[in-house]
Amino acid sequence: MKKYGLLLCTFLLLAFAAQAQDVITLVNGTVIHGKVVHITPSLIIYTESNNPGRNIDIRKSTIANVVYANGSKTIYNLTGDTRLDGDLRGNGTVSGWYYGLTGSYGIGTVTNNDKTYTTGAYTTGGGKILVTGMIFQHLGIQFGMGEDYSSYKVNYISKSTLYSTNDVFVQRYVTLPVRLLYLSNSRRRIGFYAVAGMDFSIFVDATDNEHDLLASYYNNVIICPYGSLGIVLRNRNASSIWMLGPYYKTSMNNIYSQKHILENDIYMGTGNTGNVTTMGVTLSFITNFSKWKKNGNE
C-alpha cells in the first residue's frame, strides 16, 4: 500500500512540475518547454525541463511568444511568416513621427534654345532637415527645409562684338520638399523605399567668376517634381531608419527670369526654356525619439 502511495505522490509531483513550466514558441513554430530565468533587452534565458542546471539564451527576434506557468503571455513577434531569419526580422513597426537629415549630390543639365549661349553639365548638392509622419504602416508624408546649390559653365557669344567667353554661374536656393514615402519593410530590417513629391526651391543668390551679382537672371521660385528609389535599413525596434538610393528631379518652370538682361549685348532670359534636370544619389537618416525612449537603442 505504501508503495502505491509513493508512486501516486511521485506522479502528482511530476504533473505539478510539468504544469509549472513556461512555454516558448518560436516564429518557425518550434515549441520549447522550460523555465524562463532572466530577460535582457535582446535575449531570453531559460532552463530546459530535462536539464534545469543548464542556462540557454535565445534571441527575442526569433520568439513568437512566451506563455508563463502562471498563465500570463508575452508576444514578441507575429507568427505566420516562417521565412524570415531572426536577425532580419524586427519586433517593432515603422509608425509615428520621425525626424532627421537628408543629403544629396548629383549632376544635371540646363536645357535652352538660345543660340547666344550654351551651358555645360552642372554639379549640384545640398542638405535638408526632414520631418516624416507615418500615415499608415508603410506610407508616410515628408516635409522639411534645406539648402541646395548648383554650378554650371556658360559659354556665350556677344551679339555686337562677336567674341565668346566662358563663365561659371553658381546659384543657391532654400528648398522646401513635400513628398510621399513608401517603406516596404514595416517589420523587416532590410527592404526598399520609394519617394515621390515636389521640391519648391526659393532663389537666394547667384554669382559668377567675376563675382557679379546675377540675381535678376533667375526666377524667385523653381518647382521641381522629385523621385527616388533605393534601399532602406532599420534597426530592430524601428526607431532608426537609413535610406540610400538614386534620385531624379526636373523643373516645371524656367529657371531664368525672362527679363531682358543686358550684359555684353546678351539677353540671357529671353527666348529660352531654361529647365533643369538632375540625377544623383541621396542619403537620409531619420529617427523616432519616442521609440528610442520606450525601447532603448536596441
Walk me through this protein's architecture.
There is one protein chain. By secondary structure, the chain is mostly beta strands. The protein folds into 2 domains: 2-75, Roll (SH3 type barrels); 96-295, Porin (Beta Barrel), CATH 2.40.160. The chain has 2 helices and 17 strands. The strands form 3 sheets. It has an 8-stranded antiparallel β-barrel with strand order 7-9-10-11-12-13-14-17. The chain has a 6-stranded antiparallel beta sheet with strand order 4-3-2-1-5-6, with no helix packed on it. Strand 1 and strand 2 (31-39) form a beta hairpin. Mean pLDDT is 79; it is low at 80-87.
Features of the shown structure:
298 residues, Porin, 8% helix, rod-shaped
